[in-house]
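Dear support,

I submitted the protein below through the web form. The confirmation email said the job was done, but the results page showed an empty box. After a refresh the structure appeared. I'm attaching both so you can tell me whether what I see now is the final result or a partial one.
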Amino acid sequence: MRLFIALLPDEDFKNALVRTQDAFRRAGVCGNYAERENLHVTLAFIGEYNDPDTVLDAVKAARPAPFLLSADGIGSFGGAWWAGIRPTDALTAYAARLRRALAAALIPYDKKKFSPHVTLIRRPDRERIPPVAPPLAACEVAGVSLMRSDRGKNGMVYTEIGYVK
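What the results page shows now:
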């Protein structure tokens, strides 16, 4: 199964992200818009791995603690437009602890530099981001989710298969 570890924003935060997506639509931007239920911050992408219990043990070992998640601008990379997440000391430290716990448990993960964001649109039909107000949102995150990713009829379907508080 295809796995990743994520932070799931609360409903108000998601509303702000969806308003930003709607502003892109009003600006005439076409592309593959992330579904509301798929909006998340990836802490670690694991990929194909068939032992979710071991992953959940590593998440527990990293000791998640509540911290503030705040939107921080809009940007792009790799054919995607995203809402940035302010890289606070607490968020950065937790992501580092989590990745060390995954490595200690010999769980493979994508070792790209942690760049906190929420993907809003994949493959937009233009290179330049139109002048759209970034989302104004913040929420406290109390736990971390282990997610499964499956290809559905209309795109990716993300399912929470574990939560650690």
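Response: this is the final, complete result; the empty box was a page-load delay. The longest helix spans residues 11-26.
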